[in-house]
Amino acid sequence: MWLMTGQNQSLLCGAGEPIRLWNFIIFTIPWVISGILGLFLGVVAGMNRGKLIDKAIQGYCLVISSTPAFWLALLLLLVFGVWLRLFPIGLSVPIGVEASGVTLADRIYHAILPALTLSITGVSNIALHTREKMADIMESDYVLFARMRGEKGWRLFKYYGFRNVLLPAITLQFASISEIFGGSVLVEQVFSYPGLGQAAVAAGLGSDMPLLMAITIVSALFVFGGNLAANILYGLIDPRIRRGGKVK
Questions:
Q1: Does 99 or 32 have the greater pLDDT score?
Q2: pLDDT digit string, tens, across residues 146-184
Q3: Is the pLDDT of residue 221 over 50?
């Protein structure tokens, strides 16, 4: 799948220039990973409020939230790409290989560092908010009553905290779906990774309006789809939302 500008030709360079949506789909993976990891860290911190593990998670999230994505991308590129030589230093495919010879493993291998960068930077927001919500739940009356009956640990989270903490986490996560585009712009520039973010910058600087409009439409569809998915998940997690607040 790709977006193509003009009559199969890019207005920027006068030649056919496909922009693979596969490159964008890869960047949705760190969005999912950061949401799951952020939820897990927030729950752990909230259930252990004031303890060492809570302070460690808070410290990690505060440091990451104040770290620019491009700086972290440069650091990972320097360490894992230049010094250790475990990953390629850029591009989405191996240099000198024809398109027909590029495998799925090659694309995934070249996307690891960009995806890792976005995964790390996307954790802090949902983790900190989930921590506060989980801490409030652990201090609620119904949880205190459950503790008096002898329940503790992850059993409290499973029966009393899971649904209550998941709804705001989903709201935050799907509200940040637009950050896939914002964060990927800088990361794609650092890793020379051809994606929608880099294409949007090039289209804006080159006044390529057809391409810019196409990217805008695709971005709007993803944001709309994310909000729609969040509303559907609300009803699945809490049936009372489907019933208008009525409990049957």
A1: 32
A2: 888 888 878 888 888 888 888 888 888 887 777 766 667
A3: yes
Say if 116 falls within a structural domain: yes
Are 124 and 93 in contact, with CB atoms under 8 Å apart? no
CA angle at 192 for the pair 121 and 188, rounded to the nearest 5°: 30
Domain residues for 136?
18-96+103-242
Q: What is the CATH number of the domain that holds 158?
A: 1.10.3720.10
Whether 228 is in a domain gets the answer: yes
Chain mean pLDDT for the chain: 81
What is the mean predicted confidence (pLDDT) over 214-222? 83
In 3D space, the residue among 211, 127, 113 whose CA is nearest the CA of residue 176 turns out to be 127
> Which residues does residue 20 pair with via DSSP β-bridges, in sequence order?
2
Helices (H), the chain: 21-26, 28-47, 52-65, 69-76, 104-121, 123-138, 141-148, 154-156, 162-175, 179-191, 196-205, 209-237, 239-242
In order of 101, 102, 203, 244, the CA distances from 97 in angstroms are: 6, 7, 26, 57
What amino acid occupies position 233? L
Express each pLDDT in 111-142 by its tens digit: 888 888 888 888 988 999 999 999 998 888 88
Burial class (CB in 10 A: 0-12, 13-18, 19+), 85: exposed
Q: Specify if 248 maps to a domain.
A: no
List 3's β-bridge partners, or say none. 19
* 4, part of any domain: no
